[in-house]
Amino acid sequence: MTPAQRTPRQEMIDIIARIAGEDGDYPTIIPSLSIHRHSSPARPNCAAYKPSLAIIVQGAKRVVLGEETLIYGASDYLLTSIDLPVLSQVSVASPQEPYLSMVFQIDTGRIPALLETIGDGPAKSAASPRGMTVSKLTPDLEDAALRVLRLLDRPADIAALLPLLEQEILYRLLIGPHGARLRQMTTAESQPHQVGRAVAWLKEHYSRPLRIDDLASRVSMSVSSLHHHFKAITAMSPLQYQKQLRLQEARRLMLEERLDAGDAGHQVGYDSQAQFSREYARHFGEPPMRDIGRVRRSLVGRLGSEPEMLSEA
């Protein structure tokens, strides 16, 4: 196939496969862009998703948000409009056709200025209240994403062209099926914006005891309204969200800082070691030390040595 005959998706596959020559998660010279390659399905992995556009060009992935599972594959995109703790799993991949994807971080701070330009239209009604949704990739959005990838081979063009492409991607998302959700997340005093403030507070103070009355007052919502809208957007209650933050941070502390289970649980806010072990096993499928031992053995077997830091899928 000649370069002129390649489809946009094939060109995206070629660029990502060339840069990510081996399995792994790769930052790029564009700070907001990372690319990912995996040659086989993987176990579920905890991850903290930030506002972002994730596009799979080959393979498929499962993302578990609360009790909800989203599945997306080639030519789909995953839009995340608020910080969310999830379990993610590469579900379709092989050495012949590895899983390949790109993740583009969204600067939500740029949305209000763009909205002043485009006004209220032509956004569609919110298709879902969720802060994470899957949609089919449109030709216009695919074209903008491809032009971002092409910049990896043209570093001299990044400073001039990347801001324009970032704005185009935001514009395509804002007029797409979930654009209303992005708009609401940045509209002061809207309920999604208030939930976003609650999420920010929980992320900063996850180890503290959670008092729902205080959190609701802090974000100017009633307790019932906070519960309703928080769960509609995150698929979790505030307490469940805090629990996932705690368990993910405890796992990171054991893997990267080599804390034992007792110290890690205590540091993230658990007073009871038994409760920590029970909730950890329910969330990750194994008790803490068995899970950490398995992950370390897997890393040593795959990389030949255990890395100082565990990259996030």
SSE blueprint and pairings:
Elements: H1 8-19, E1 24-27, E2 33-38, E3 45-49, E4 52-58, E5 60-65, E6 68-73, E7 76-80, E8 84-92, E9 99-105, H2 111-118, E10 132-136, H3 139-150, H4 155-174, H5 179-185, H6 191-204, H7 212-218, H8 223-234, H9 238-256, H10 261-267, H11 273-284, H12 288-303
Helix pairs in contact: 1-3, 3-4, 6-8, 6-9, 9-10
Describe the structure.
The protein is globular and about 60 Å long. It starts with 7 loop residues before the first helix and ends in a 10-residue tail after the last helix. α1 (about 10-20) packs parallel to α3 (about 140-150) and α3 runs antiparallel to α4 (about 155-175). The chain folds into three domains: about 5-185, Jelly Rolls (Sandwich), CATH 2.60.120; about 190-235; about 240-305, Orthogonal Bundle (Arc Repressor Mutant, subunit A), CATH 1.10.10.60. The chain is built from twelve helices and ten strands. With about 325 residues, it is an alpha+beta fold. The longest helix is centred in the middle third of the chain and has 20 residues, at about 155-175. It has helices at about 10-20, 110-120, 140-150, 155-175, 180-185, 190-205, 210-220, 225-235, 240-255, 260-265, 275-285, 290-305, and strands at about 25, 35-40, 45-50, 50-60, 60-65, 70-75, 75-80, 85-90, 100-105, 130-135. Mean pLDDT is about 90; it is low at about 305-313. It has a six-stranded antiparallel β-sheet. Strands 3-8-5-6 form a four-stranded antiparallel β-sheet. Helix content is about 45%, strand content about 20%. This is AraC family transcriptional regulator. It comes from Sinorhizobium numidicum. InterPro entries: Homeodomain-like_sf, HTH_AraC, Tscrpt_reg_HTH_AraC_N. It holds the Pfam family HTH_18. Keywords: Transcription, Transcription regulation.
